[in-house]
Amino acid sequence: MLNFLVFMMSLRLLLTVARSAWTVALWVAHPKWVDLEQDFSLEPTVSILLPCFNEGEDVYQCIATILECDYPKDKFQVIAADDFSKDDSYEWIQRAEADFPGRVVARRNPRNLGKSRTLIGASHQCASDIIIVIDSDCIFAKDTIRQLVSCFTSPKMGIVGGTVGVRNPNTNMLTQVQTFAYFLSFNLSKTYENWTRSVTCVGGCLMAIRRPLFEQIEPKILARNWFGAEVTEGEDRFITHQVLLLGYSTFVNVKARCWTTVPEKYPPFFKQQYRWRKSGVRDLMLTYKLLPWHFGKVHLNGIYMGTISPLTMMMFTIMIVAAPFFNPLFFINPHSLFLPLAVGAILHLIIARHTPEQKVKNPLSFVLFGFWWVINSFYLTVLCLLTLDFSDWGSRAKSEQEPQSAAPGLFVSPVAGD
Amino acid sequence: MPLMNLQNIVNKSTITVYRVFAIVTMYGVLASVLMFALLLGFYAVSTSWVAPVILSEQDTEALDLTNKILSSHVTLDEMELDIVKTQEVVAEARNHLVALKALHPKIEAAIARENEHRHATGQPLVDLARQKDSDNARAQDMLAQLAEAEASIDKDLAAGLITKVDTIEAKTQFAKTRSDLTDSKIARILLKDSLLDKTGSTTTYMETLDKKVELESEITVLENTIQSGERQIAAEKLLIDQFRKATDLAAQTPLAIAMQLGRANLALVPYDNQQSAVVGAPVYDCYLSFVGCRQVGQVKAVFAGEQHAVHPIFRTDIRGFLVQLDLSNAESAKSKTLFLGSKPLLF
To answer: Which of A79, A363, B225, B236 has the most beta carbons within 10 angstroms of its beta carbon?
Structure first.
């Protein structure tokens, strides 16, 4: 058992080091392999879908900043759909609709349906070439839309994503840690997948997809279930996966930027991480279920990223359970602390140089990332594996949220903007 | 439609089973995590736990100690034998020394007497030798005059002044005189030898002195032999004492107790918990690590020697000492931890 754990740990470490080394090599020696040839003359019509739940005033700011993008005003609109929020989110959406006439469509579900159905409902309101899905707590750079659509130079390009930064990097230690995590996830990890145009998860914070593709995938999104229990979270990863299975490319353009407000308190942070982890667990199961259909459609690197990489991470759960039996103080020994400290120091320098607005004032907070990683790898994974029959809005959900029906209908009654 | 219903039933059943499993597992995981945290917390603050250790005569360390004790005994026997042999050598040397020391004054006296005698006879002999030389010189002069006389005898015989008999008698007398002179010269040479004996350092005398030196040297050697023998005996006796002390100490160690009893129930007491380790302190064993405890014996002996071990829970290196346990329940010696003094949580 111990040998197996050591083997898995070594394997994971080896793969991570190899992947990181290759990423650095791509950056330094082959930047063109990572970059995509962009065509900034492309100006397809764009619909920006903004599913919203309990965001309050943030949703207005989100709409305002996306509308400020330097893209022909007549070629893009925002469809903001409220999933029956308990707060004043819908009022803010309506105010945006009033403040930006003709450019914002406001919608509201008659009851809480979950993000996937809200998104699909919103997509039914548009007829554009490209759909851009954004999160309602994000603000955007002025060239975000142009950076995204300029990547659709090839008809095989299915999805283009962007990087998500942190608006509140130094509010507290928790946001500092998340700043590191976001940078790692969007600016570093995606580079490796960009190389083969097979990004396995384009974040729902900023995702551009061809509308026909979205419509093609829509039935599958709606059909997602766990032994009859509807699955509503992780639609971004699912959509990306389905697009890859259809033989299209996926790419993250690091120059398309937006910034989100990360959770500042532990409960919403926990819910967010739980939702993301569960999405990863579901996707891993889906990958193995449909593995034969991946070959020939998805680049081998994408298959590797969808099968081996998350599996070795899952193995960490076993390792984390087993480690205390061999060394109960494993997670607080100096070696375990040194690695996050070292990684944090390096990341701090990189972030300060490349995204100075996200410079973290206390790089030592990365140690907390190490502890969170342990909790995330163990408890959240176990929790996800044991709650696959349950879905909600994660960090935005409130306790008084109405229970979902066992088989909810798709039909969303647009309250306004139809 | 029936197929759909069947699917729904299967799904609902699966979900139900999954949820039951999930709830049980989740609470199990939660309970495990909490228990683990509690366990770590308890052992971080507890000051009465000890880690039982069972020592057997068949343990490698015990066997090593047995070998060492046996080797020590053999060494002790050899050293005692050495002492006896050395004592015999010293005794023999003493006897010999006594005999030689008794001989030494006799040689001294003999040499003194001889020197005295030489002194007494040497000078007169020198004077006599001088006298003899003078006599011989005079005799030599007289012989020269006799040669002239002898020549005149022949002339007197030829002239018929004396008879032939007188001539023969005279010549005989001349020959006798020469012979006497020769004898006197020979005696003088012999006297020279005697003078050399009486007044110079002859080989005989030197041999006598050599014997004396040899005797004195032998006496010194014997004295040294006796001294070194006595030192060796003293050193070996000291070493034997030290060996005996070490052997006695070894006999009081936990390993030796294990060797004597065949098995010893011991426990390692970390220094942090040393105040609990007193002879007679009750020993408690718990059914669930530190919950549900009962007395299973008491501390029988406390050993001073430092021991190193691995913390039974934290797996870190710990330092402490051993205590011997008198257990009413031998199985308690196999527990991961025991507690001294009182129940850790009063139940």
So the answer is: A79
Spatial distance between the Cα atoms of A71 and B202, rounded to a whole number of angstroms: 140
C-alpha distance from B4 to closest chain A C-alpha (Å): 11
Contacts of A386 (CB under 8 A, 6+ apart): B21, B22, B23, B25, B26
Q: Best mutation site among B6, B18, B32 for testing chain A: the one with the most A CBs within 10 Å?
A: B18
- Cβ of A227 and B316 within 8 Å? no
Report chain A residues whose CB lies below 8 A from the CB of B33.
379
**Angle, alpha carbons A344-A345-A351 (nearest 5°):** 80
Question: Exposure string (b/e) for A314-336, b if CB count within 10 Å is 16 or more?
Answer: bbbbbbbbebbeeebebbeeeeb
Rounded to 10 degrees, the C-alpha dihedral A386/A391/A397/A398 comes to -70
Strand partners, A166: A260
Contact (Cβ atoms closer than 8 angstroms) between residue A46 and residue A149: yes
Q: Does A332 touch chain B (CB under 8 A)?
A: no
Q: Minimal CA–CA distance to A129: which of A80, A77, A93?
A: A77
Distance CA B341, CA B347 (A): 13
CB A71 within 8 A of CB A148: no
From first to last of the 418 residues of chain A, give the pLDDT tens digit: 667 767 777 777 788 788 888 888 887 888 888 788 899 999 999 999 999 998 889 899 999 999 999 999 999 999 999 999 999 999 999 999 999 999 999 999 999 888 889 999 999 999 899 999 999 888 999 999 999 999 999 999 999 999 999 999 999 988 998 998 898 888 878 888 888 999 999 999 999 999 999 999 999 999 998 888 888 888 999 999 999 999 999 999 999 999 998 999 988 888 888 888 889 889 999 999 999 999 989 998 889 888 887 776 677 777 777 777 777 776 666 766 677 777 778 888 888 888 888 888 887 777 777 777 777 777 788 888 888 887 765 555 544 444 343 333 333 332 322 2
Q: What is the DSSP string of B116-137?
A: HHHHHHHHHHHHHHHHHHHHHH
Topology of B73-237 in CATH? Helix Hairpins (1.10.287)
Q: Report the residue from B12, B14, B22 with minimal CB separation from A386.
A: B22
